[in-house]
Amino acid sequence: MQTRSTDQHAGAGPLEHVLDTLRSSYRDQRALAERALAQLEGHDWHVRLDPESNSVAIIVRHLAGNMRSRWTDLFTSDGEKPWRDRDGEFAVTDDAPEALLEAWHAGWDLALATLDALRPSDMARVVTIRGEPHSVTEAVVRQLAHYAQHVGQIVMLAKHARGDAWHGLSLPTPRRGAPEPPPPPR
Questions:
Q1: C-beta separation of 37 from 56 below 8 A
Q2: CATH hierarchy code of domain 14-164
């Protein structure tokens, strides 16, 4: 039995399938983070678990800056732009959630537009990140892993901040001491 994903790629080559899978994974990461961010109250954005930890605000600012830097002029300039203030992304500030979301959306929109414009023939092209060459495939997978790491942090911090008010984003967590549910039928 073919899955929907397999069906939609029946006439496409394997690299187009990989590109579509990567695009879908990026969109899934964005959606997961945004479902967590939507549950936050204003003060929740700035909660840090300890003085060395990042808040949701810091992570959002960092991801927005990273996306703007990495995806601007992907093929013609280093992914680490001289105008980026990476250290400033980690500063403790009182940025309003609205301003953070504006930067977040701009970063994601740029990343996704660039991904959508890629063609299978682009995947072996070389781009530079911090002076080091990477194939586009390597760069795209590297960024997906980076974003997924931070999205997981956003979800964990949002869940921590909201406590009992948290609405799960996936299957409910089994309660300790409760019997395991039966496996789904095959």
A1: yes
A2: 1.20.120.450
